[in-house]
Amino acid sequence: MRESTVNRTTLETDITLSLKLDGTGASQCATGCGFLDHMLTLFARHGHFDLTVTCKGDTYVDDHHTVEDIGIALGQAFAGALGDRRGVRRYGDITLPMDESLLLAAVDLSGRGGFFGDLRIPTQKVGSFDTELCREFFIALAREAGITLHVRQLAGENSHHIIEGAFKATARALASAVAVDPRFANEIPSTKGTLG
Asked: How far apart are CA 52 and CA 165, in angstroms?
């Protein structure tokens, strides 16, 4: 079973997160940040990942620690669920329309974490959510999961649509990358014999 549970407690957040890669898209998200709950719910649905996450965070300060630390926990859960990454397709990409917005996401389960993004979100807030936290989430996710993640905004004017498109595109690219290729189910997809 390709699944993992992460418990992460700091002075800023207390997180429990469970991830199942071969799921149905079911989710239960209670992070204390409504917009992040919305993004994680659609992330799970579009990746067909089963995701449960609870967080008690210092949102009286702002949402920064909650968003970043959930990105860390989700990345660690992906790394745990993937194990040595044997049999995975490794790469995934998509160009995804979200109304007027158009997002490209490309993923390599390289073992070398890095986020390379080009998101031009026009407003500082969506509701009470600081839009700059979108980048912080993806940096933490990519670093801890050990994935190379590119997200490019090709078009877009509405901040909500841009961020939602980025989460959906990332989920679908990840779903493709983590899928098992039955032809090579016992092989690590690298000429080095390891991903990392």
From this structure: 21
50-57 and 27-30 strand pairing: parallel
Under 8 Å between Cβ of 177 and 108: yes
SS3 105: strand
Which pairs count as long-range contacts for 180-184, CB under 8 Å and 24+ apart, including other chains? 180/87, 180/88, 180/89, 181/87, 181/88, 181/89, 184/87
What pLDDT does residue 142 have? Answer: 98
Residue where the block lists tokens 């407690």: 9
CB 136 within 8 A of CB 115: no
Q: How far apart are the C-alpha atoms of 170 and 104, rounded to whole Å?
A: 8
Which of these, 68, 161, 173, 67, lies nearest to 121 by C-alpha position?
Answer: 161
Q: Is this model's pTM higher than 0.90 or not? A: yes
pLDDT tens-digit map of 131-144: 999 999 999 999 99
Task: List pLDDT tens digits, range 45-71.
Answer: 999 999 999 999 999 899 999 999 999
